[in-house]
Specification:
Elements: E1 2-8, E2 12-20, E3 27-31, E4 37-39, E5 43-45, E6 51-58, E7 61-69, E8 74-79, E9 94-97, H1 101-106, H2 112-120, E10 122-125, E11 138-144, E12 147-154, E13 157-162, E14 167-168, H3 174-180, H4 220-232, H5 240-252, E15 262-264, E16 267-268, E17 270-278, E18 283-288, E19 291-298, E20 310-313
The structure holds taurocholic acid (TCH).
Taurocholic acid binds at residues 1-2, 18-20, 24, 56, 63, 65, 77-79, 81, 99, 129, 133, 135-136, 138, 170, 220.
Organism: Fusibacillus kribbianus
Pfam families: CBAH
GO molecular function, one term: choloylglycine hydrolase activity
Length: 324
């Protein structure tokens, strides 16, 4: 499972957890403005917005999982297994393969509004990247500091939803996730009133009782509720350190520990990495399952007018700061 979230203080932050039982060989990758994107049906883009994100690089091609561009737009793909449906290429539409969708949007859109306009003309195709890397069944969140949308390509076509909570997980489809939040109207960060009835003198014997009823399990519907509640009630200072710290705490509410989600054959889904991008400053922060120290890559420290990908393999293994 995976979870994505947005957060605004002075700057705008966008990130996700990537939960799975194995890593493809993830790297933080910067695609500078003149890195050529060769789209299967849409030709080649020679000059575009610079992008930084998490990707698996196959044959020199960055296959992004989540990324932001230099204009402050962010986008992430999360599993949508059994519901995602991609099509054959058709004439009269912009045919973009599923694995190209992130660079297609981030290379040319500066805002959610511009992305929405492009998606109106879009047909996401079922073209695999290669025989070894078949099509991934995903849906996407696209966000800037003014709002977010969710994009789902299903049997009946592409759906674009306003995403007023700025979070996303996996199944069921977004409409159902949003409807399900109605069931949690009563949860609160405040101490609850005693409305039980009958004049029973019920006690608030613990702090945090306003949140009772929030689901604690790792299913995608439960994580959606939990991360939405955490994000909507989040309070932090506005500095970079305070904002980034708070962002990791928001996604910490849906962290997956090894052992709790058994996917069979002694394999467990875990939070392989958590990312937090400052979309205003072009910085990609991340932690990994084995490394809780925050690592950062700043796209503006690279030559953004270059033609070559810049690749940073993830820093793995705990970095313990000994005090004696
Ligand atoms: C496995 C990842 C999603 C994690 C997730 O959502 N887990 C939830 C599990 S569950 O179902 O809800 O149980 C997805 C997110 C982005 C995906 C990758 C990107 O789409 C880029 C390429 C696309 C290629 O078609 C396949 C390899 C790949 C490199 C993908 C591998 C894999 O499907 C990734 C890494």
């Amino acid at each position: 499972m995976c979870t994505a979230a947005t957060y605004k203080t002075k700057d705008f932050y966008f990130g996700r957890t990537l939960d799975y039982e194995f890593s493809y060989g993830d790297e933080v990758v910067v695609a500078p403005r003149r890195f050529p994107f060769h789209f299967r049906y849409m030709g080649m883009t020679e000059s575009h917005y610079a992008i930084i994100g998490m990707a698996y690089v196959a044959g020199g091609c960055p296959l992004f999982y989540d990324a932001i561009n230099e204009k402050g737009l962010g986008m992430a793909g999360l599993n949508f297994v059994g519901n995602a449906d991609y099509k054959e290429p058709v004439s009269g539409k912009d045919n973009v393969a599923q694995f190209e969708f992130i660079p297609w949007i981030l290379s040319q859109c500066a805002s959610v509004q511009e992305a929405r306009a492009l998606i109106e003309r879009l047909n996401i195709t079922n073209t695999p990247f290669s025989a070894e890397l078949p099509v991934a069944e995903l849906h996407w969140i696209i966000a800037d500091r003014d709002g977010a949308i969710t994009v789902e390509s299903m049997k009946d076509g592409i759906r674009i939803y306003d995403n007023p909570v700025g979070v996303m997980t996996n199944n069921p489809p977004f409409e159902k996730q949003m409807f399900n939040l109605n069931n949690y109207r009563h949860v609160s960060s405040k101490t609850p009133q005693n409305t039980f009835g009958g004049g029973l003198p019920l006690d608030t014997y613990s702090r945090g009782m306003g949140g009772m009823g929030l689901p604690g399990d790792l299913s995608s519907q439960s994580r959606f509720v939990r991360v939405a509640f955490t994000k909507m009630n989040s309070v932090s200072g506005e500095s970079e350190a305070e904002s980034v710290s708070q962002f990791f705490h928001i996604l910490g509410s849906v962290d997956q520990q090894r052992g709790c989600c058994d996917v069979g054959e002694k394999e467990y889904e875990i939070t392989l990495y958590t990312s937090c991008c400052n979309t205003d400053k072009g910085i990609y922060y991340y932690t990994t399952y084995e490394n809780h120290q925050i690592t950062a890559v700043d796209m503006h420290r690279e030559d953004l007018d270059g033609r070559e990908l810049v690749r940073y393999p993830l820093v793995l293994g705990e970095q313990i700061n000994w005090q004696n």
